[in-house]
Amino acid sequence: MIQTMVTAPNNVPSSQGLRAPLGVLDGPITPTLLRLALPTVVVLVVQTLVGVAETYFISFLGTETLAGVTLVFPVLMLMQMMSNGGIGGGVSSAIARALGANRHSDADGLVWHSVALATAFGAVFSLAAILFGSYLYRSMGGSGATLTAALTYSGIVFAGSIPIWITALLSAALRGAGNVKVPALVIVSGAVILLALSPPLIFGWGPFPRLGVAGGGAAVLIYYLLAAVALSIYLRSSRSPVKLRIVPLQGRLFMDILGVGLPSAVGTVQVNLTVTFVTAAVGHFGADAIAGFGIASRLDYLQIPIIFGLGTAIVTMVGINMGADQVERARRVAWIGAGIAFGVTQIIGLLAALFPHVWMKLFTNDPNVQEMGSLYLRTIAPAYGAIGLGLALYFASQGTNRVLLPVLAGTVRMIVAAGLGWSAVIWYGASVGVLFQTVAVAALAYGMLTAAAVLPRRMFRARGLRAQPSVSKSTAPNV
Questions:
Q1: Domain of 153?
Q2: Is residue 472 situated within a structural domain?
């Protein structure tokens, strides 16, 4: 398998030529997908473990403090999902397509436009936290010491919204160029620093002052500041496949990012609304139902690193191949990636449905809680494959710059699961079993509708953005 070289129009490799990551434009697809996905999966697993560790440290400050931080997590998670999978998906897609089309100056320009967008979106989240944080956390049940802890933690973490966004979008820029190792190295190294800083700042060890919950927020802020600086330095170096340079801002480059990023960001909001409404409906059946649902649904979230890691690899490979006018290869990448995602998630789902008590017993001995969680897994876990399939094809649509229909499939899922499911329970007295069945139907509909949206060949139609390079490519068989 020979690495492809896209060269300048005079057929001589230049500084503006793209050396595509090995296997992206030719050669076996599956090994390349897995190689590009693995570092991102590792990053997401590490970030999940860091979140668990941070929660563990803060738990020593008392229940009210822990409850206050818990109120902030959904908002922080929304921002991270929007920056990584939403606007970040738009950045990866735009840069991959630009590099595939040999528009290297556009790819470099997109990096600076990403920084501009990160600054704007980060400022919006910071301002929103300042102006509406108190109202939001009160509406979520915060009061007294819990509300004070939430506002303290939120104020410090969201003061760092801009570094959080810059870290996410610069990481997405490198992933779009096929460099998945540097973002992984930066995030993992930063996570080690965060774990080392959190306990001293929270509890006042050694020369550090005891900051309590503010210390936890400060550790997160320092983590993202260091990560943003490290990524910026690398993107200014000669080793980076794309460069961070100050260039005049252009509307067409913003639209290249936001044409994919904004609909994708809407998709992340839909996911959060779906979870919120389903949780509210489950809460109607009491504490045991909430506890069982919460434990069982953790298995849903454990699959996110796998799907997101594979998805970012799909965006990169589909985007570069679309830019290089290798439309049929882009299509094969999409469906092979979707097949892998379906296979992994469906196996997990079937095992969970057949042996739900194995999972539930890891967290609780309460028979009522176990039974409620087992009902959830027996009903919904068999549909995991449909969700994996739909999400993988959604990432593929980011690479093609055609995300509207997959996002609308997510809208249907939200309407069925959150709208119909919540309404059936609250207004018509439906059982929790009916609620879970509705959520499962919504998952199946999402997978089928996304597949139907991506299946037509027009989804992979080239848009004629190639910059007229000549391509010297391996003649090895595409196995």
A1: 29-249
A2: no
Q: Give the torsion sign (CA, 116, 122, 124, 126).
A: negative
3-state secondary structure of 19: strand
Q: Are residues 242 and 390 in the same domain?
A: no
Please tell me the distance from the alpha carbon of residue 86 to that of residue 264, in angstroms, as a whole number. 4
CB 183 within 8 A of CB 171: yes
Q: Put the strands of the sheet holding 471-472 in their side by side order.
A: 18-19, 5-6, 471-472
The predicted-structure confidence for 300-349, as pLDDT tens digits, reads as follows 877 887 888 898 899 889 988 988 889 999 999 999 999 999 999 999 99
Q: What is the DSSP letter of 141?
A: T
Give the pLDDT of residue 20.
Answer: 60
Residues 240 and 286 in one domain: no
Considering the domain architecture, whether residues 245 and 270 belong to the same structural domain is answered as no
| 66 domain residue, yes or no | yes
Q: How far is Cα 334 from Cα 394, in angstroms, rounded to an integer?
A: 9
Residue 102 shares a structural domain with residue 224:
yes
Distance CA 462, CA 100 (A): 12
Instruction: Report the C-alpha gap between 82 and 261 in whole angstroms.
Output: 9
Q: What is the DSSP letter of 18?
A: E
Mean pLDDT lowest among 2-11, 147-156, 182-191, 264-273: 2-11
Token reading at 423? 């309404």
Q: pLDDT-based confidence at 147, cuts 50/70/90?
A: confident
Residue 406 phi/psi, 5° resolution?
-60, -35
